[in-house]
Every structure is written in structure tokens, then in C-alpha cells.
Design brief:
639 residues; mainly beta; Rossmann fold; 5-stranded parallel β-sheet; 5-stranded antiparallel β-sheet
Length: 639
């Protein structure tokens, strides 16, 4: 496993990791390594615990010893070496001293006073990004300098991809924002490098694979696009929605969201195939060092019998892993745990059935969580506590299935109940599933919970904790939700986790807020407008852990491509209810024409809504309420 510190829910993201893993930093690290190798053994001074991730992410160079100034750190393992006292540095016979720190001029001056004569002193400032790519040059490890992410990017003459987002940094004061982009082929080779300039206001952003391919005269590819946002403010996360769609007439259509820029030890929520399906995991190396053979494995969730991938994956390369090659006898609704060793950010997987594909993502499996007994005795002021809301699509056209997914290393049970609500907030059904074991195969078919004629137009369900039959929980309840047309023509799936919603009282950072401290009692969701041929829609859910406002005061704000407000529509959603939002039906044609290439911002300052978005293919002919034979679905993002 890579010895890197990426993200935790207390401190947030680790800028050191981003600073060392950036593709341009990786190139500079390779040059620094060549210099160190040529000079001979290196003495490393590690004042800020950076040597371990440096060792993990850089090519190897000869190290004689590692020194620290903290007496409490003496003897600690630092990148495979026991830390020695800095006072011994004067006696080293190394050719070079490397100070494993950025902005290290002062440290270098101090080390000079004790270093042997003639020893060269280098620092990690040798691998700094160019000044033009820094939002805050005065503090190199400012997280705003490393707003980066990866995109699964594809254009192979059958499928294409399109990234969409908005310049949400403008709302925080960002100026002259631009995206530095590097496109990697499946081999890890660099196919293209370019900058994408964003409008100075909250305009829309679109990067289409076909446009990139034509602009750089490159052939078919399936790889990854690295994005680095510069000139930003207020938000160091690159968020986006990604459409994957057929260009060969097959009708495939999918949407996913941002990749979550932090590599994880494990991921979960990967479904096993049905007999008539092929499931491919797209494994994309996020670093400039190879993934060694045997470093990645797949395991049937709960089996503790991982099967290793016996192949090396080159730097920044993309490899398609057919689940059946490693786990040939596993079938839906069994689920798979990816043991990724912190080599990759959140991967995509692709399901092929009846000639069509759908793409979704797995989720980060937490290593830091333990069962929390206090969840069994939450204050009644928090009502039902954690809720995992998901839409139920119109029943005549679509089936809806829910698969609870373990999402923490120590999660042995999932004590689950399903509550079903009509769009007007009426609770129609509740079903207890007991404490499901980690290796369960319980895919909940909504048809088995409530008959189609009792909820014909759909509504929503909420998975909640229920300890009436035992079990333990940790607050990280997740599920995979699958939507299939009953005629078998197409399907879509998405996954997400539970939160507390719409209570004034808080518990350990819940209810979360998009901006500022909890409680999260407001909404700011992004909905790409789409086109007449591929129209956007979303399902907005008003989940409430406890009683809150009877009806939401939700504004749909239609913006054009440069961020100008074109029109507004107000909708009211019942507490514990839901609403289907179709911009192409709700705004006049003239306003939609003015907003071409734009988006809808969903705002509510009275409550926090949860949303799922998608597109319907085939234009107006197949864009009816029954969901066309081409449709996509994933949860929305906010900022």
C-alpha cells in the first residue's frame, strides 16, 4: 500500500499529497531523483513528515539516513528508515542533504551551519509547480493551489464523454479562473495538454471529448483527463457532472459525477454481474509510479479472500478489469470490495447488457470509522437521524432496486429499515430488514415493498438505521440504487450515503452544510440544462430527520452559458416529499433558447434538498414522463 496521507473527515484534504502527486510535480521529482542518484547517497532531513509520501510517489534514490529535530520522533519509521537526531547530520558523509519540505529557504540556512563542508543542500522547492499555476504563490501548500481532479475521459468512435460544471468559484471571489488540463491515454502516455478559460462570472463550463480530439488531432482513446483549477477562491474541490453517451447509435447513456480526488485504501459498491451482463472496472493509476502486480485485488464483500490483479499498471495508465476474470462465479446481488492500496481515485465501472452500457462509480470505504453505540440512543430532537433518500421512478416504465452497501472496513452489520413516501410526503410503507451481515445479498425490489398501483407515479424511499433486531452502525450508511426499464432496453444506477437532514440540532457535524458550519439548512444544486436532443431532468427530495417546514420554498434559476439569470420558477415540495423537475417543460421556449448551453441552479434557503439528475435521450419523441429508452441517473452535486 502506498504510504501516503490523503484525506480525513477531520482535517480535510492533505495539500502535501496533491503537491507531490501532481503530474508536473512528478516530472520535476523524476529530474530531482536523477540529480540525487548521480551525486551518490543522500541524507534526508524530514522536519514535516513529508519523506514517507515523497518516497512513495517518487522514483527511488539512494538514502543513507533520515534525520529529525523532534526528540519524540526519534526511532520512528520514516519511509522505511528509523529517524535519527538532527545533531548527527554533521557527521554524515552523504553527498547531498535533501530537506523534505517546501518553502524551505530558512531551513536550508540553518542546516548549512551544521552540514559538512562541500555538501550540496536541496529542498522540495525544486519540484514546485510553475508560478503561473499557483493561486497563492506566497504559501505553496495552500489547498487552493491544488484544486485538482481526474475525469474518466473517452472518445473511441462508439462512445464519447462530456464534462459539465459552472464557475462556482466566481461566487467566492475567484478571478480569471482557468483549468490546466492534461489528457492521458490508456497507456499513460500524454495525448494532449491545454488550458480552458472560464468566464469571470458563474458561467457554464463544458469540455467535450470530441472537441479535444479534433483540436489536438488525436485518434480514439479511453483514458483520464487531469484537471487543475487556477485563480479560484473559497472552494478547493473540482466538481463536475460527466455524461457518457453513444455516438454509434447503440443508445447507451450514463452520467456520473466528480471522481473524488483522494486515493483510498478500499472502495465498495461494485456490483457483481448478472448472467447476461459484463461488468468492467476501469482502473486508472492516479500517480507517476507504477501500480505493482499484486497491489490491487478484488474480494466478494465480506469473504476476506481477495483475488489479486497479477499485472503491473504503468503510471497514469487505464486498464479495463473484467470482474469475471478474477471472480468468475460471483453474481448479482453479490457485491465486490476493491482493495486499491491508495493507488487510484474513485474508479468507474461499466455494465454491458443487451448491447448497451451504463457507467457508475464505486465509493470510498472508510478505514477510520468504528461502530458508534451512541447512534442507538440519539436525542429524540434528531428524529429519525440518518436518512439515505433515493427516488422511486414511475412504476409502469421502470423498476427500482436498492442494495445496501457496507462502506467501512469494520462494518459487520447493516441494521436497515426502508420507509417509502409519496410525492406529497405521505408515508406509505415501512419494511424492516434486520441487521444484514456484511456479506449479504439483499437487493430490495420496491415492487416487493409497495404495489405499483399504490404508488404509480413514483415517489421516494429512505433507508434508515433500525436497531430493533440488533446490529451496529457507524453513521456511514450507503446504498446502490438501480433503475431498469421493464422492457429491458436500458438501466441506470447510482450510489450515495446517508446524512441527517433539516434539523436545527446537530450531531458530529450533521446536518452538513454546503458552506459554513452545520446545521445544513439550505440548498445549492447544479443541473446542466442539456439540449433538445438530450434533455435534463432531476428528482428533488425534501428529506427531514425531524419535522421541519411543511413546504419548501425552492427556486429554479435558469442561467445562460455566461452565468446571466434568464428566468426563475418557484416550486414547493412537501416535507418528506419529492418532485420531478423538467426544465424543458417548466420554462418557456424563448427562455430556454436564451439559456442554450447554460444550467439551472436550484436554490432554497429554508431547507436542504437532496437531488438526483439525469438526461433523457432521443429528444422530444422519447422525452415523456415514462423515461425514454435512453436515460441516465446519478446524484447531484452542490457548491
Amino acid at each position: 500500500m502506498l504510504d501516503i496521507d490523503t484525506f480525513d473527515n477531520v482535517r480535510g484534504g492533505n495539500a502535501v499529497y496533491k503537491a507531490l502527486a501532481h503530474p508536473l510535480a512528478a516530472e520535476a521529482l523524476a529530474a530531482l531523483t536523477a540529480t540525487l542518484r548521480a551525486a551518490g547517497p543522500v541524507a534526508v532531513y524530514d522536519p514535516e513528515r513529508l519523506f514517507a509520501p515523497l518516497r512513495a510517489l517518487a522514483p527511488s534514490f539512494p538514502v543513507k539516513a533520515v534525520f529529525v529535530h523532534d526528540t519524540q520522533a526519534l526511532g520512528e519509521a520514516r519511509g522505511g528508515y528509523a529517524a535519527r537526531p538532527l545533531t548527527e547530520l554533521a557527521h554524515t558523509n552523504a553527498a547531498t542533504i535533501l530537506i523534505a519540505a517546501f518553502d524551505a529557504n530558512r531551513l536550508a540556512e540553518r542546516v548549512k551551519t551544521i552540514a559538512p563542508a562541500g555538501v550540496k543542500i536541496l529542498t522540495l522547492d525544486a519540484v514546485r509547480l510553475p508560478e503561473a499555476l499557483l493561486t497563492n504563490p506566497r504559501r505553496y501548500l495552500d489547498p487552493l493551489n491544488f484544486a485538482t481532479n481526474f475525469v474518466f475521459f473517452r472518445d473511441d468512435d462508439a462512445m464519447a464523454t462530456r464534462l459539465v460544471t459552472a464557475n462556482y468559484w466566481a461566487g467566492y471571489g475567484g478571478k480569471s479562473v482557468r483549468l490546466w488540463c492534461r489528457l492521458f491515454a490508456d497507456t499513460g502516455a500524454i495525448l494532449a495538454e491545454f488550458e480552458h478559460v472560464l468566464p469571470d462570472n458563474a458561467g457554464s463550463v463544458s469540455i467535450a471529448s470530441g472537441d479535444v480530439r479534433r483540436a489536438h488531432n488525436i485518434g480514439p482513446f479511453t483514458g483520464q483527463l487531469f484537471i487543475h483549477a487556477i485563480g479560484i477562491a473559497g472552494h478547493d474541490v473540482v466538481k463536475y457532472a460527466l455524461d457518457t453517451y453513444a455516438t454509434d447509435g447503440s443508445g447507451s447513456l450514463s452520467c456520473t459525477h466528480d471522481a473524488n480526488a483522494w486515493p483510498s485504501e478500499r472502495f465498495a459498491g461494485l456490483p457483481a454481474p448478472r448472467d447476461d451482463e459484463r461488468v468492467v472496472l476501469w482502473l486508472q493509476n492516479s500517480h507517476a509510479v507504477p501500480i505493482p502486480a499484486g497491489a490491487v485485488s478484488l474480494d466478494r464483500m465480506g469473504a476476506e479472500a481477495p483475488v489479486v490483479l497479477d499485472a503491473e499498471i504503468p503510471p497514469f495508465a487505464t486498464q479495463a478489469i473484467d470482474i469475471a476474470d478474477l471472480l468468475p462465479n460471483l453474481r448479482w446481488p453479490a457485491q465486490i470490495e476493491l482493495r486499491a492500496g491508495r493507488h487510484v481515485v474513485r474508479p468507474r465501472y461499466e455494465v454491458t447488457r443487451h448491447g448497451r452500457t451504463r457507467i457508475a462509480h464505486v465509493n470510498v470505504e472508510r478505514a477510520d470509522l468504528r461502530p458508534d453505540p451512541s447512534l442507538k440512543t440519539l436525542s429524540p430532537l434528531l428524529g429519525r437521524g440518518f436518512l439515505l433518500p433515493f427516488p422511486i421512478l414511475p412504476r409502469a416504465a421502470c423498476s427500482t432496486l436498492a442494495l445496501p452497501t457496507p462502506m467501512a472496513h469494520t462494518q459487520a452489520t447493516l441494521p436497515i429499515r426502508l420507509d417509502v413516501f409519496a410525492p406529497d410526503g405521505t408515508k406509505l410503507a415501512a419494511k424492516h430488514y434486520g441487521a444484514l451481515p456484511r456479506d449479504h445479498e439483499m437487493a430490495i425490489d420496491i415492487d416487493d415493498v409497495i404495489p405499483p398501483d399504490a404508488l404509480p407515479d413514483g415517489g421516494h424511499g429512505e433507508l434508515v438505521y433500525d436497531f430493533s433486531q440488533g446490529g451496529e452502525a457507524d453513521g456511514w450508511l450507503h446504498g446502490l440504487f438501480r433503475y431498469e426499464r421493464r422492457d429491458g432496453s436500458h438501466a441506470a444506477e447510482t450510489s450515495f450515503g446517508a446524512h441527517m437532514f433539516n434539523t436545527l440540532m446537530t450531531w458530529k457535524g450533521e446536518p452538513q452544510s454546503y458552506a459554513g458550519p452545520p446545521p445544513g439548512l439550505s440548498t445549492r444544486l447544479f443541473l446542466d440544462l442539456g439540449t433538445p436532443e438530450r434533455q435534463s431532468f432531476c428528482i428533488l427530495i425534501y428529506p427531514a430527520s425531524a419535522l421541519w417546514h411543511a413546504v419548501s420554498r425552492t427556486m429554479l434559476q435558469l442561467h445562460d452559458a455566461v452565468g446571466r439569470l434568464v428566468a426563475e420558477v418557484r416550486v414547493g415540495i412537501a416535507c418528506s416529499g419529492s418532485a420531478r423537475i423538467e426544465p424543458w417543460r417548466m420554462f418557456p421556449p424563448a427562455d430556454l433558447a436564451r439559456a442554450a448551453g447554460g444550467y439551472v441552479l436550484i436554490r432554497d434557503v429554508t431547507c436542504r434538498l437532496f437531488g438526483y439528475h439525469g438526461k433523457k435521450g432521443g429528444g422530444k419523441k422519447s422525452g415523456g414522463k415514462d423515461y425514454g429508452s435512453e436515460f441516465s441517473f446519478d446524484h447531484m452535486f452542490g457548491f
